[in-house]
Design a protein that fits this description.
Distance between the termini: 11 Å
Strand order of the largest sheet: 1-2
Helix content: 55-70%
Order of helices and strands: HHHEHHEH
Number of strands: 2
Mean pLDDT: 90
Amino acid sequence: MNRTWVNLVAVQIGWFASVLGAAYGMPYLGPIFVSVWLAMHIAATRSSAGVELKVLLAAGGLGYFLDSMLVLGGFMSFPSYAQLGAPSTLWMVALWLGFAATLRHSLGWLRGRFLLGALLGAIVGPFAYWSGSKLGAVVLTDTVPSLIAVGVEWLIAMPVILAAIYRLERNHALAEGADAATPLRQECG
């Protein structure tokens, strides 16, 4: 199996471990899996591990902030059995980290496509949260307004993360003396 597929499969396993773990009262399950996977992922991307770590930290911080705003705004909440952290949860941050680990690899084709990223985020983001709510990991307070809020969240988050990737890769290329117009080769783990 090539690295792109490993990357794509790992993020899906991380999503299920996080969401089903939270839904079944084991909200630590996803963060444990994602931590192990990301350690292997970083080791596999060692030539640009600094860029990868910065992308993950930026996406994790942004995700925690935005999801916390949704919680504080009353758009979503977490059942007591799914809580691990507040206002957002650690397993939600694990989801953001796992997703971010795909953006330079299996979803690397989104690089520089900010408008497409925003559009996909606005569609796929709400679907993922709705799916999580149907599995019992998260409560969407009022479904339609909550999904609209999640759509706006991801409409903003995707181009922000893609712009961060562009800038980090450009700075890395400049520091390495490479042509800044040439994106880093795709690696994944």
